[in-house]
Amino acid sequence: MFPSNLILRTLLLAVVVIIASSIFGLIVWRGGNALGFDLKFRTIILLSLGLLALFVAGMAIGNLAGRPFEIIGILIVWIIYTLWVISPLLIIRDIISIWYKIPFLTMTIVSILWVLVGIYFGTNTKITPLNITSTHLSGIHKIVFISDIHVEAIHNTKYIQSIVDKIKKLQPDFVLLGGDLMNTAKSDYVDAFLPFNQLTMPVYATLGNHDNM
Question: DSSP assignment, residue 66?
């Protein structure tokens, strides 16, 4: 008999594959229609599974030793993510098209702007002030909490330095790093965290799932 946790993980993996394939299927179906292709159901399924396989391959390549492999893997994953991000626009386009047919050029420009806005907000560090009260704390403490830094081949030392520079300006009592320090656990990127040594306050960190891959 299979251990219960193995059965649970297998079922969870199956659910993830079904959901991911459905999203990729939507991208292929609506994207094909937007380009003027009338794709058959079997073709949509095969292409969606192909995108899923490409996504998994990109993650696997990114985990290989060597900076070139990681950059290639990141680019593949980012391309898939881009398609994923554009997919809601295709649904919006379908709804609007009931009353007004959106020109292909307009849709292309809107998609590019949509992705660029996502990249901007996804790569810029945002500071969110938050006041917390607790009976377990004596006095007033100023804390900086950071999570999901995801250091990799493209986001590394300069990215960390920009974060450290912002922390210096805030002058907290201590800093908390809440996991997922690296995108994949590689000793190559340990040195990227050296800028934290410039801070005079204590820095505490815990590991996330990406740090244990």
Answer: S
Cα 37 vs. chain centroid, distance in angstroms? 30
**Domains of the chain as residue ranges with CATH:** 4-123 (no CATH), 143-212 (3.60.21.40)
**Running DSSP on this structure, what letter comes out for residue 124?**
S
Q: Contact, 29 vs 39, CB < 8 A?
A: yes
Residue 176, SS3 per DSSP = strand
Full DSSP string of 90-117: HHHHHHHTTT----HHHHHHHHHHHHHH
pTM: 0.66
Nearest to 43 by CA among 30, 28, 24: 28
Candidates 111, 87, 68, 75; CA nearest to 20 is: 87
Residue type for 209, please?
N
Task: Write out the chain's pLDDT in tens, 213 residues.
Answer: 445 677 887 888 788 778 777 778 877 877 777 677 777 888 888 888 888 888 888 878 877 767 778 788 888 888 887 877 777 777 777 777 777 777 778 877 888 888 888 778 777 778 888 888 888 878 888 999 998 888 887 778 888 899 999 999 999 999 999 888 887 777 778 888 899 999 999 999 888 887 776
* Cβ density class 202-212: b for 16+ within 10 Å, e for less: ebebeebebbe
